Amino acid sequence: MTLFPDNSQFQIWVTTWQRKYNLPGLFYVDLWPLGPTQLVVTDPDLAQHFVSPNMYPKHWFEARALDPVVGEGGMITSNGAHWKYLHKAIAPAFSVTNVRALTPKVAEQAMRFHSVVEKLAKSGEVFKMEGIMTALAFDVVLKIAFDIDLDAQTKGSEALDALKAMTGVFHKERDATNPFTRYKWRSVRLKNRAILDPFVRKLINDRWVAITAARDSTTELGRRSGLPIVDLLLRDRIEEARGEGVPPTLDAKFTEVITTQIKTMLAAGTGTTASTIGFIYMILSENPDILERLRDEHDRVFTPGTNATYAMLQETPHKISELDYTTGVIKEALRFFVVAQTVRTTEGTSITSVTYNGREYPLKGQMILPTPHTMHMDPKYFPNPKKFDPDRWSRNESPANAFRPFERGQRACIGQTLAMDEMRIVLLLTARDFDFKCEGLKPYAKPAVDWQDLDLVFGDMAYQDNMFEARPRNGMPMRVKRHM
Questions:
Q1: What is the pLDDT of residues 108-158, one digit of tens each?
Q2: Binding-site residues, please?
Q3: Which of 379, 441, 370, 465 is nearest to 4 (CA)?
Q4: Taking a C-beta distance cutoff of 8 angstroms, is the pair 42, 378 a contact?
Q5: How far apart, in whole angstroms, are the C-alpha atoms of residue 203 and residue 159?
Q6: Which residues bind heme (predicted)?
Q7: What pTM does this model have?
Q8: Which residues are annotated as a binding site for heme?
């Protein structure tokens, strides 16, 4: 497999196979002995059918990919009653209303990011966009989860370093065929997990002490809006104990449940945002017309000047929803660069097959893989898919089910509203002040595939690295200058 750079993500292979062999909207892929047989789904409506949680639970492969880093029983990988409990407890924190109320807090972290970029612009040094964006996203997740200001962006964080180490080496452990090599990377993961887990547990315990010690905790338990995510989970625990007439306790088992959810948010909540902002600035660096329109919208909807815009965000956070062109830029980046995908199964159900275009396809033992990237690059759903065109989103020319960077249905990414707002805010507070440029690009002489031509400009950087999730290659090295 030399068509793409080493360790390229699987979805781009699916897109290539479908285009080359004119494959239908679902087909089988057998990669034995690397893994189970896969039923790849590239038809948007059929993909929507498979994301029904009541019919098609999550495949064990997702747990194999995530649990070694975040722990067992996470919201992404769990099924049944446990998933329903977690969703009911956590979903209110990610409602549009609650997320929009968090805008000032996210903007505060984004202004700190602005200061980090300012220093890099002054020094002229090469930096990795994924690294500084991951620190921003880490600070944001901790702010909404615990209402603490860690400031990993400027002070660093041992916990953040541990998270990056685990997500950075797990794919090496997962893919190693030599048992000694696998043990080596497993040791690195466990060493860093021993740093991150106690960090999260202490934050949970601190919130528990604060809640149970509060004099007005009895009257405040009914309030849900604006609370940190951990508070929602802990207050459910207190309410449950009071309903049973027993003193509330924070036992080790329940602490581990919460720890897993927070680590899931840290891992998933940093990857998408960090990667997508990097790819956006990569694209904008070679598309000055798009960048100029983005900047014009920021001046028009808010006001010229970053400090004045920040002040407006504090007073009128709802205006972030008026950034239509900015949203189009983000969606285009998500269309080109999909971070992850869901994996479903019929295991534990009575379903044995699915009918598609009058033909029956067996499902037993299959990894069912709806593949967003292939849909995103299909001209049937997205006209002229090779073109980075933010205006396509105002034309409403594509079926809703075809765009699925966060997946769709009841088990779509619970944090997608926060992720979208965070990316809007970061662009709003940085795009007018800085010009980013990728460093060390080696453009291809001709496109590797017929479904895109970004490699003519960006070379290997056009193809994501398949790590804990799909990421920018080598962290996306860049330089930045002050925009004049």
A1: 999 999 999 999 999 999 999 999 999 999 999 999 899 999 999 999 999
A2: 413
A3: 465
A4: yes
A5: 12
A6: 413
A7: 0.93
A8: 413
